[in-house]
Amino acid sequence: MASQISIIQCTDDDLPSAMAAISNGFGHDAPFFDCYFPAHDTSAGQESGLKRLQFWKENSPNSTFLKATTEAGKLIGFGVWTFMTEPVSDKLDEVEADVGETWPDKDDADHMRELWQQYVPYRNGAIGDSKVLEMLAVDRDHQRQGAGLQLTEWGTRKAEEMEIEAVVEATPIGVKTYHKAGMKTVVEETDMDLSPRFADRRQVKLIFLRKGGTSG
Ligand SMILES: CC(C)(COP(=O)(O)OP(=O)(O)OC[C@H]1O[C@@H](n2cnc3c(N)ncnc32)[C@H](O)[C@@H]1OP(=O)(O)O)[C@@H](O)C(=O)NCCC(=O)NCCS
Q1: Is 140 touching ligand 1 by the criterion CB < 6 Å?
Q2: Is 216 part of a structural domain of the chain?
Q3: Of the residues 134, 173, 175, 209, which should be mutated to test ligand 1's pocket, given the most ligand atoms within 8 Å of the CB?
Q4: Ligand 1 pocket, residue 176 CB under 6 Å
Protein backbone atom coordinates (compact mmCIF):
# COMPACT_ATOMS: atom_id res chain seq x y z
CA MET A 1 0.00 0.00 0.00
CA ALA A 2 1.26 3.52 -0.79
CA SER A 3 2.41 5.43 2.27
CA GLN A 4 0.62 8.49 3.60
CA ILE A 5 1.61 11.66 1.77
CA SER A 6 1.89 15.04 3.50
CA ILE A 7 1.99 18.46 1.87
CA ILE A 8 4.27 20.88 3.73
CA GLN A 9 5.99 24.19 2.93
CA CYS A 10 9.59 23.82 1.75
CA THR A 11 12.54 25.22 3.62
CA ASP A 12 15.72 26.34 1.84
CA ASP A 13 17.29 23.01 2.85
CA ASP A 14 14.66 21.14 0.82
CA LEU A 15 15.59 22.80 -2.47
CA PRO A 16 18.40 20.40 -3.53
CA SER A 17 16.02 17.42 -3.15
CA ALA A 18 13.29 19.43 -4.88
CA MET A 19 15.57 20.13 -7.85
CA ALA A 20 16.46 16.43 -8.06
CA ALA A 21 12.78 15.41 -7.90
CA ILE A 22 11.67 17.82 -10.61
CA SER A 23 14.52 16.77 -12.90
CA ASN A 24 13.72 13.11 -12.36
CA GLY A 25 9.95 13.71 -12.56
CA PHE A 26 10.05 15.55 -15.87
CA GLY A 27 12.88 13.52 -17.37
CA HIS A 28 13.06 14.57 -21.00
CA ASP A 29 9.33 14.27 -21.66
CA ALA A 30 8.56 17.99 -21.63
CA PRO A 31 10.43 20.15 -24.19
CA PHE A 32 9.72 23.42 -22.38
CA PHE A 33 11.21 22.08 -19.16
CA ASP A 34 14.32 20.87 -21.00
CA CYS A 35 14.77 24.36 -22.49
CA TYR A 36 14.04 26.17 -19.25
CA PHE A 37 16.35 24.01 -17.12
CA PRO A 38 19.16 23.19 -19.55
CA ALA A 39 21.11 19.97 -18.86
CA HIS A 40 19.05 19.52 -15.69
CA ASP A 41 20.07 15.87 -15.36
CA THR A 42 23.79 16.70 -15.09
CA SER A 43 25.49 17.93 -11.93
CA ALA A 44 26.19 21.32 -13.53
CA GLY A 45 22.55 21.60 -14.64
CA GLN A 46 21.30 20.62 -11.17
CA GLU A 47 23.57 23.20 -9.56
CA SER A 48 22.39 25.90 -11.93
CA GLY A 49 18.73 24.88 -11.44
CA LEU A 50 19.15 24.91 -7.68
CA LYS A 51 20.60 28.42 -7.79
CA ARG A 52 17.57 29.58 -9.76
CA LEU A 53 15.12 27.91 -7.36
CA GLN A 54 16.90 29.65 -4.48
CA PHE A 55 16.77 33.01 -6.30
CA TRP A 56 13.07 32.46 -7.08
CA LYS A 57 12.23 31.54 -3.48
CA GLU A 58 14.12 34.55 -2.11
CA ASN A 59 12.57 37.02 -4.54
CA SER A 60 8.97 35.93 -4.85
CA PRO A 61 7.14 36.72 -1.60
CA ASN A 62 3.81 35.76 -3.19
CA SER A 63 4.99 32.22 -4.01
CA THR A 64 4.50 29.21 -1.75
CA PHE A 65 7.02 26.44 -2.25
CA LEU A 66 5.52 23.09 -1.30
CA LYS A 67 6.84 19.59 -0.93
CA ALA A 68 5.05 16.27 -0.85
CA THR A 69 6.68 13.87 1.57
CA THR A 70 6.30 10.22 2.53
CA GLU A 71 5.70 9.15 6.12
CA ALA A 72 9.48 8.75 6.44
CA GLY A 73 9.88 12.43 5.48
CA LYS A 74 11.33 11.80 2.01
CA LEU A 75 10.62 14.57 -0.50
CA ILE A 76 8.83 12.95 -3.47
CA GLY A 77 7.11 15.93 -5.08
CA PHE A 78 7.43 19.68 -5.44
CA GLY A 79 5.03 22.43 -6.40
CA VAL A 80 5.05 26.22 -6.49
CA TRP A 81 1.81 28.17 -6.18
CA THR A 82 1.99 31.93 -6.73
CA PHE A 83 -0.60 34.58 -6.05
CA MET A 84 -0.17 36.70 -9.17
CA THR A 85 -0.83 40.38 -8.79
CA GLU A 86 0.82 41.76 -11.91
CA PRO A 87 1.68 40.54 -15.42
CA VAL A 88 5.05 38.91 -16.04
CA SER A 89 7.56 40.55 -18.39
CA ASP A 90 7.94 38.78 -21.72
CA LYS A 91 11.65 39.73 -21.73
CA LEU A 92 13.62 36.80 -20.37
CA ASP A 93 16.52 39.07 -19.39
CA GLU A 94 14.18 41.02 -17.09
CA VAL A 95 13.01 37.96 -15.16
CA GLU A 96 16.15 35.83 -14.96
CA ALA A 97 19.12 36.77 -12.76
CA ASP A 98 21.72 35.78 -15.37
CA VAL A 99 20.65 34.54 -18.82
CA GLY A 100 24.25 34.13 -20.03
CA GLU A 101 25.16 31.92 -17.08
CA THR A 102 22.05 29.74 -17.30
CA TRP A 103 22.15 29.38 -21.10
CA PRO A 104 25.88 29.60 -21.96
CA ASP A 105 25.18 28.54 -25.54
CA LYS A 106 24.05 31.66 -27.45
CA ASP A 107 21.59 29.72 -29.63
CA ASP A 108 20.02 28.12 -26.56
CA ALA A 109 19.72 31.55 -24.91
CA ASP A 110 18.12 33.09 -28.03
CA HIS A 111 15.78 30.12 -28.36
CA MET A 112 14.69 30.48 -24.74
CA ARG A 113 14.23 34.24 -25.20
CA GLU A 114 11.89 33.60 -28.15
CA LEU A 115 9.99 30.86 -26.35
CA TRP A 116 9.56 33.13 -23.34
CA GLN A 117 8.36 36.04 -25.46
CA GLN A 118 5.71 33.87 -27.13
CA TYR A 119 4.66 31.99 -24.03
CA VAL A 120 4.20 34.91 -21.65
CA PRO A 121 1.26 36.57 -23.49
CA TYR A 122 -0.66 33.27 -23.21
CA ARG A 123 0.22 33.15 -19.56
CA ASN A 124 -0.74 36.76 -18.85
CA GLY A 125 -3.96 36.28 -20.84
CA ALA A 126 -4.99 33.24 -18.83
CA ILE A 127 -4.06 34.75 -15.47
CA GLY A 128 -5.73 37.69 -13.80
CA ASP A 129 -5.51 38.14 -10.04
CA SER A 130 -5.33 34.42 -9.45
CA LYS A 131 -3.39 31.66 -7.79
CA VAL A 132 -1.10 30.02 -10.31
CA LEU A 133 0.54 26.65 -10.11
CA GLU A 134 3.85 27.57 -11.72
CA MET A 135 5.61 24.26 -11.29
CA LEU A 136 4.66 20.74 -10.33
CA ALA A 137 6.58 17.49 -10.49
CA VAL A 138 6.64 14.18 -8.70
CA ASP A 139 9.61 11.85 -8.61
CA ARG A 140 9.11 9.02 -11.12
CA ASP A 141 9.36 6.31 -8.46
CA HIS A 142 6.45 7.89 -6.62
CA GLN A 143 4.07 8.92 -9.39
CA ARG A 144 0.43 7.71 -9.39
CA GLN A 145 0.32 7.70 -5.59
CA GLY A 146 -1.67 10.93 -5.23
CA ALA A 147 1.13 13.45 -4.53
CA GLY A 148 0.49 15.49 -7.71
CA LEU A 149 -3.22 15.74 -6.99
CA GLN A 150 -2.60 16.79 -3.38
CA LEU A 151 -0.12 19.49 -4.41
CA THR A 152 -2.69 20.74 -6.95
CA GLU A 153 -5.59 20.69 -4.51
CA TRP A 154 -3.57 22.63 -1.92
CA GLY A 155 -3.74 25.63 -4.25
CA THR A 156 -7.26 25.17 -5.59
CA ARG A 157 -8.48 25.12 -1.97
CA LYS A 158 -6.55 28.31 -1.10
CA ALA A 159 -7.91 30.03 -4.20
CA GLU A 160 -11.44 29.01 -3.23
CA GLU A 161 -10.94 30.48 0.25
CA MET A 162 -9.74 33.73 -1.36
CA GLU A 163 -12.64 33.60 -3.87
CA ILE A 164 -10.26 33.85 -6.80
CA GLU A 165 -9.41 31.58 -9.71
CA ALA A 166 -6.76 28.88 -9.62
CA VAL A 167 -4.82 28.66 -12.89
CA VAL A 168 -2.39 26.07 -14.08
CA GLU A 169 0.06 26.13 -16.95
CA ALA A 170 0.34 22.51 -17.93
CA THR A 171 2.29 20.14 -20.05
CA PRO A 172 0.17 17.51 -21.82
CA ILE A 173 1.43 15.04 -19.17
CA GLY A 174 -0.08 17.03 -16.31
CA VAL A 175 -3.55 17.59 -17.77
CA LYS A 176 -5.17 14.42 -16.38
CA THR A 177 -4.18 15.35 -12.84
CA TYR A 178 -5.61 18.86 -13.24
CA HIS A 179 -8.86 17.52 -14.67
CA LYS A 180 -9.09 15.23 -11.67
CA ALA A 181 -8.69 18.34 -9.47
CA GLY A 182 -11.75 19.80 -11.24
CA MET A 183 -9.88 22.27 -13.46
CA LYS A 184 -11.17 23.15 -16.93
CA THR A 185 -9.08 23.82 -20.03
CA VAL A 186 -9.01 27.47 -21.17
CA VAL A 187 -6.16 27.35 -23.70
CA GLU A 188 -6.07 24.02 -25.53
CA GLU A 189 -2.63 24.44 -26.98
CA THR A 190 -0.16 27.27 -27.34
CA ASP A 191 0.91 27.98 -30.91
CA MET A 192 4.53 29.13 -30.80
CA ASP A 193 5.80 30.56 -34.06
CA LEU A 194 9.58 30.66 -33.67
CA SER A 195 12.25 31.89 -36.12
CA PRO A 196 13.19 29.43 -38.90
CA ARG A 197 16.62 29.01 -37.27
CA PHE A 198 14.89 27.00 -34.52
CA ALA A 199 12.87 24.80 -36.89
CA ASP A 200 14.74 21.65 -35.89
CA ARG A 201 14.08 22.10 -32.16
CA ARG A 202 11.34 20.17 -30.34
CA GLN A 203 7.93 21.85 -30.44
CA VAL A 204 6.69 23.30 -27.18
CA LYS A 205 2.98 22.90 -26.43
CA LEU A 206 1.46 24.19 -23.23
CA ILE A 207 -2.10 24.07 -21.99
CA PHE A 208 -3.81 26.41 -19.52
CA LEU A 209 -6.53 25.29 -17.15
CA ARG A 210 -8.47 27.03 -14.43
CA LYS A 211 -10.91 26.50 -11.64
CA GLY A 212 -13.17 28.85 -9.73
CA GLY A 213 -13.93 32.51 -10.29
CA THR A 214 -16.77 32.93 -12.74
CA SER A 215 -15.86 29.98 -14.97
CA GLY A 216 -16.63 27.24 -12.43
C1 LIG B 1 1.85 15.27 -13.65
C2 LIG B 1 2.38 14.69 -12.36
C3 LIG B 1 2.81 15.83 -11.45
C4 LIG B 1 1.24 13.92 -11.66
O5 LIG B 1 1.70 13.53 -10.38
P6 LIG B 1 1.25 12.15 -9.71
O7 LIG B 1 1.59 12.22 -8.28
O8 LIG B 1 1.76 11.02 -10.48
O9 LIG B 1 -0.33 12.23 -9.93
P10 LIG B 1 -1.47 11.60 -9.01
O11 LIG B 1 -1.03 10.25 -8.50
O12 LIG B 1 -1.88 12.58 -7.98
O13 LIG B 1 -2.60 11.38 -10.08
C14 LIG B 1 -3.84 12.00 -10.01
C15 LIG B 1 -4.69 11.53 -11.19
O16 LIG B 1 -4.20 12.07 -12.39
C17 LIG B 1 -4.29 11.09 -13.44
N18 LIG B 1 -2.94 10.69 -13.87
C19 LIG B 1 -1.77 11.09 -13.33
N20 LIG B 1 -0.74 10.57 -14.02
C21 LIG B 1 -1.28 9.86 -15.03
C22 LIG B 1 -0.71 9.08 -16.08
N23 LIG B 1 0.60 8.95 -16.25
N24 LIG B 1 -1.57 8.45 -16.91
C25 LIG B 1 -2.89 8.55 -16.76
N26 LIG B 1 -3.49 9.27 -15.77
C27 LIG B 1 -2.70 9.92 -14.93
C28 LIG B 1 -5.07 9.92 -12.83
O29 LIG B 1 -6.45 10.16 -13.00
C30 LIG B 1 -4.67 10.02 -11.39
O31 LIG B 1 -5.59 9.45 -10.52
P32 LIG B 1 -5.62 7.86 -10.30
O33 LIG B 1 -4.20 7.39 -10.13
O34 LIG B 1 -6.45 7.69 -9.06
O35 LIG B 1 -6.24 7.29 -11.53
C36 LIG B 1 3.54 13.69 -12.60
O37 LIG B 1 3.15 12.77 -13.59
C38 LIG B 1 4.80 14.38 -13.06
O39 LIG B 1 5.60 14.86 -12.25
N40 LIG B 1 5.03 14.43 -14.39
C41 LIG B 1 6.22 15.03 -14.96
C42 LIG B 1 6.26 16.52 -14.73
C43 LIG B 1 5.05 17.21 -15.32
O44 LIG B 1 4.67 17.00 -16.44
N45 LIG B 1 4.46 18.06 -14.49
C46 LIG B 1 3.28 18.80 -14.85
C47 LIG B 1 3.74 20.06 -15.42
S48 LIG B 1 2.42 21.14 -15.57
Answers
A1: no
A2: no
A3: 173
A4: yes
The pLDDT-based confidence of 2 (bands split at 50, 70, 90) is: low
199 within domain boundaries: yes
Domain count, the chain: 1
What pLDDT was estimated at residue 216? 44
Calculate how far, in angstroms, residue 136's C-alpha sits from the geometric centre of ligand 1.
10
Question: Which CATH number is 78's domain given?
Answer: 3.40.630.30
**What does the pLDDT look like over 70-86, one tens digit per residue?**
999 999 999 999 998 88
Amino acid at 151: L
* Nearest C-alpha neighbor of 174 from the set 100, 63, 97, 77: 77
Strand locations in the chain (E): 6-9, 63-69, 75-83, 131-138, 166-170, 184-187, 207-211
